[in-house]
Specification:
The chain is about 15% helix and about 15% strand. The chain contains 4 helices and 11 strands. The radius of gyration is 17 Å and the shape is globular.
Amino acid sequence: MKELPDLEVVRIAAGDYVVGPAPDDRDWPDEVEFVGTICGDLEVMIYPVTQRLWRSVMGQDPFELWFPEAGDRHPVEGINWFEALAFANALSRTQGVPDEGLAYALGSEFDSPGGPLEYFCTPSRRSGGSGWRLPTEFEWEVACRAGTRSPWFWGSDESDARNSCWFDGNSERRTHEVGQKRPNPWGLYDMAGLVWEWCEDNYVVPICETAPQRIGGFGQKIVRGGSFMHEASMLRSSCRGAATAGRRNPFLGFRLVRTVSRGS
């Protein structure tokens, strides 16, 4: 199996978790508190996908580089939602997952990211697929909160953002290397700030626990976490964002998850 850089994971146990704004949070109308279930243990990448992990898997730079001077350990950015799905399948293949175990059925017309045919692709999630995939919005927030019920994973003090994330108050409006700020209580880095992270779901109101049947191919997709260009209030654990599936911009990245069986 090919050794890959910057690919470390944290395992989240199956179980019930609370997401949504806490009582002292400045919630927006589309933020709702509820209890949901993660049905199988979940492995979550410790870092957003980096430039060198992307190149190691895809054999090339991203289709569009907004920060050509970015180093190997900077997050990959300018990636649209379709390209994130293609990367998930490619990473799974690199690790020996057979085609029938891939998370996504993308269609034979989607041969590589960056091509015009991606916009005619109608992906679907394979039932029981064991490969890497984007997290659902619910899974993403569970991972970000890491058991906390405060507005941010570090607590309720907005001024502590400087120690915990890259945002408009310290980033100089550019990306930085992953893993340079304080991790959340479960050891995940850059869940707040640095780059928005694609989720699998379509944007719906309110947040939904699971949505594999709703991933579709077009429309608004969920993004989470805020970015280096946003104020700290946009980095709250319950804050929701959306972007068109084909959109690329300098503050859009992603990280992946996979469902694993206990004992593996």
